[in-house]
Amino acid sequence: MKSFRQLHSKTAGHPEYGYAPGIETTTGPLGQGMTNAIGMALAEKTLAAQFNRPGHNIIDHHTYTFLGDGCLMEGISHEACSLAGTLGIGKLIAFYDDNGISIDGEVEGWFTDDTPKRFEAYGWQVIPAIDGHDADALFAAIEAAKSNTEQPTLICCKTIIGFGSPNKQGKEDCHGAPLGADEIALARKELDWTYGAFDIPAEVYEEWSALDAGDDAEQIWNQSFNAYHKAHPDLATELLRRVAGDLPADFEAQAQAYVEQLQAEGSNIASRKASQNSINAFGPLLPELLGGSADLAGSNLTKWSGTKGITRDDASGNYVFYGVREFAMSAMMNGMALHGGFIPYGATFLVFMEYARNAVRMAALMRQRVLFVYTHDSIGLGEDGPTHQPVEQIANLRLTPHLDTWRPCDTVESAVAWKTALQRTDGPSALIFSRQNLSHQQRNASQLANVNRGGYILQDCQGVPEAIIIATGSEVGIAQQATDTLTKQGHRVRLVSMPCTELFERQDAEYQAHVLPPSITARVAVEAAHTDYWYKYVGLAGKVIGMTDFGASAPAHELFKMYGFTADNIATTVTELL
Ligand SMILES: Cc1ncc(C[n+]2csc(CCOP(=O)(O)OP(=O)(O)O)c2C)c(N)n1
Ligand SMILES: [Mg+2]
């Protein structure tokens, strides 16, 4: 506490995952901490349903979360708590810090919901009107919460912010600002606290220390696990693998064989379909996959042949029907990844990533293995029009540190995207897929091997190229036709497919210069998304065929023509640079 809010201290401005063992998630964006907790509690329920056996409750813990007025005002609290009620996540215990204060003052002017009734309507058990400063009352409430395993519990705790500070308690000034020396002196008097600053009396330390209780609990668990291991050796080994986050030993070989098979087959299908095929191929190998979609399963194609929905009465499945709740889905996935035992993936249309934007950022900030699946990736979705056509979202994702953003061009790149994202243990990935069919690309063995370097030469010319075309996703096939046209006209043109720029940028300088030699400045980037991101690849002398407006409602092929995503326009644009 002495180094509160100082660089790399364990007591950062908001708790940060990774800085101290007790910090289970990074909180601060209101409403997300409690939603993480709901994801964690669902993970516990599902892991228990998958691994517990009669006489062996090896996964068996409660999830506790604290929330304030701010969390309850945030929309995500409705999304998440509504779903938690429906799924009957019974071992979740939430404490509401009902202090009547938020940053701007007393909440009567902006928050007058009947919170107990609201949560009863969600199907929660509500324990109202507890004095949050009365430890005995709280213990009793916690026992009542534990005794109900059918419903999540909200314990409403009436509290006074800044309790004990005679002039500031009950006021918003206590929220973040220090009390100041004078008021601290008065508070000490009020609370009859005679010890020095940072002096923790031994009896208080002992009362609060969980060292012995924690040791005991761990020993008891270890004994139960040994018994479980004896009775169910395979399950026990599998549980350890799952919790460690290791993929099965044969995953790499099997997944690689699948990628090679796709290269040989050469299907021309939508990348969202290719994504589903990949889940079908990898799903049987990975029982840790915990999928879902925000009410768009039939469009996102996130269900596979082994999909089993998680319900209130049977949590043993591998798929969450999140309903129309993009933000809760994303923040819950963060909670599931933090809990362990699962690799969560969840989907929506790319444009609605924005509803969940900050949870994607939190996954990246905490470097969690979460797979965000986004389909309907551009104006290529067509008739749904500009409200559904993403333009600036891909750049936004690419600008997020530690997030890998994939936009594959065919079945092969789609499978590599899934494989690489699943194997990545130090951060989340966004997998972006098309609604429309995409043409298969030819690759030799070394091109195939380079897909998981994020960018690679898909088609090359004899000798030194005069120009380079860089394309992603649905525009690769069109750029490939343009490359053929230009080659026939006698130009030396290289086509680079760039499914994951972040990964390409992590390659060594030599490889990057091999793909994009600095001396070749005639460069055209093609992507049906915002143009700006690509100038770092093509330079100010280069050209970008992309979007600078929101799109329009029309069939996809008309929109592609109107915005210049045609082989003719690409070829013309390249020749203008030569
Ligand atoms: C999403 C989000 N919006 C705004 C903020 C800034 N902020 C921090 S605390 C707070 C409200 C505090 O009210 P409450 O949750 O009741 O906490 P209390 O002051 O009672 O401790 C706000 C608006 C934030 N952290 N996250
Ligand atoms: Mg408050």
Describe this entry's structure for a reader.
The chain is 41% helix and 15% strand. The protein starts with 31 loop residues before the first helix and ends with a helix. α8 packs across α9 and α11 packs across α16. A 6-stranded parallel sheet has the order 8-7-9-10-12-11, sandwiched between helices. It is α/β, with parallel strands linked by helices. The longest helix has 21 residues. The chain contains 23 helices and 17 strands. α18 links the parallel β14 and β15. It is globular, with a radius of gyration of 27 Å. The protein binds thiamine diphosphate and magnesium ion. The site of thiamine diphosphate has 14 residues, from α2 and β3.
How would you summarize this macromolecular structure in one to three sentences?
This protein has 578 residues and is an alpha/beta fold. 41% of the residues lie in helices and 15% in strands. It has helices spanning 32-51, 69-73, 75-86, 115-122, 135-147, 181-191, 202-208, 211-231, 233-244, 251-265, 271-282, 297-300, 326-339, 357-365, 393-398, 411-423, 445-450, 474-488, 501-505, 509-515, 535-538, 556-562, 567-577; strands at residues 63-68, 92-98, 101-102, 105-106, 125-131, 153-158, 289-293, 319-321, 343-349, 371-375, 404-406, 429-432, 456-459, 467-471, 493-497, 523-530, 543-547.
Distinct small molecules bound, one entry per kind: thiamine diphosphate, magnesium ion
Classify the beta-strand content into a percent band. 5-15%
Low-confidence stretches: none
Cα separation of the termini:
63 Å
The assigned structural class equals alpha/beta
Q: Provide the gyration radius in Å.
A: 27 Å
**Using DSSP, what is the number of strands?**
17
Trace the largest sheet across and list its strands: 8-7-9-10-12-11
- Summarize model confidence as the mean pLDDT: 97
Fraction of helical residues: 40-55%
How would you sum up the major sheet?
Answer: 6 strands, parallel
**Overall 3D form:** globular
Total number of helices: 23
